[in-house]
Amino acid sequence: MRIGIDVGGTNTDAVLLDGNEVVAKMKTPTTPDVTGGVLAVLRPLLAQLPSGADLTGIMIGTTHFTNAVVERRRLARTAIIRLGLPATQSLPPFVDWPEDVRKVVEGYATLAPGGREYDGRPITPFDDEKIRAIAREIGDRGIRSVAISGVFSPVSPEDEQRAAAIVGEEIPDAFISESNDIGRLGLLERENAAIVNAALHDLARHTISSFREAASSLGVDVPIYLTQNDGTLMTADFAERYPVLTFASGPTNSMRGAAFLSGLTDAIVVDIGGTTTDVGMLVGGFPRETALEASIGGIRTNFRMPDVHSIGLGGGSIVRDDPPTIGPDSVGYELTEQALVFGGGTLTTTDIAVAWGGDKLGDPERVRDLPETLISRAMDRIGNTIDEAVDRMRLTADPVPVVIVGGGRILAQRRIAGASEVIVPPHHEVANAVGAAIAQVSGEVDRVFSLDGTGRLDAMAEAERLTIARAVEAGARESTVTIVDREDVPLAYLPSNATRIRVKAVGDLEQGT
Length: 513
Prior knowledge:
The chain is of the alpha/beta class. It contains 14 helices and 23 strands. It has a 6-stranded mixed beta sheet. Strands 11, 12, 13, 16, 19 and 20 form a 6-stranded mixed beta sheet that branches. A 4-stranded parallel beta sheet has the order 6-5-7-8, with helices on both faces. It is globular and about 75 Å long.
């Protein structure tokens, strides 16, 4: 049996899963410290655990790390060493960061010899003594979070690895984030991802320790896993090293849960929460990845992210009549206190949906006297907003299945334009927690290979080997790992017979890791 928990901006949801059956489910308002909400759902679920049942793990999806970047809080001062001199001097590290978050994170930034050309040839020879001197200076400044980026390190990561080894020797207690482990091609975006990852390490260690202590306080001794933003899991230890991979894990949990609960592998998922609605596309049972760079709190990055369109529409969105507007502000986790149907004094979309004739939530008598024109106009606005978001996700004009999940499902009462069918599966309100509970473990490689001296098949085989190794490192049982996606793009504009290979593998969880 597994417990899946998803910490959202409004609610913390949890399920107890026995194989493919949802045995119990819980929903509670998210607490400011996150851990409190996790304890609030964990206690009653454990109480419903059958006697003698084998609980194999707790899977948690959290917005904790995304919020830290957005709010510019709890981020560690970080040093960045870029390898590539004399190249890249015109665009130093942190050059494209918002000034407020740069002031919080930037501790030290420097450039050093090293780096690679697109075919793996060195730009300049790597200088061990230079890196050693830089590491000593970083240590003297008291900085313990270090990011290392190198020009074209996804092609040849050796320089980053050598620099990381030297920094580790000079600063034994440093946390070191290598850009080749996280980002893709594109120096600044990949470097930014490595810096953010390093800046989050202290918070990740504290947060994951809190999750472990919460479970231990309830007498639970099972592994804890965190969900990644591709709809898969990673061990708690792996998450401490790569907290940046949790970004946007909430929407992906909902999409994976929607696929599991509906039985569909290719569909558009509309996840209506209390604050926002996330719309994404399932392809083969997993969220479609975006081809665009991702901006996290104004910081451009290029590691994998789901292709999700978020809109300021949720069950707690505030409705105003003059002029007629819906959101984007929301009462959030205070919905059950502030909405009219629950005895509050704020008109929300939930009130409108109940007045329209939706689910009998709270006390429908409290919204019986709302003007019909207001109700009709608000429901039209809600429906049009969802229609536009669904249309944005479609790649063709053909109708596609639409799966509605989330606690705010009551808002989707009109026919959705462009939908071949609309499915509201059982347990839709906790689809995000279900997605966390059923998640597998993945590994991915996105790298440029030079085919001079080697064949395309050999390059693909090496990429697959590295991908499987990353999946196993993240917690997958090696015998179950399979390649689920391959992409081979020849780079015709480069003279060295180069090709870009992206491979993704997925496997079942190695129990007891």
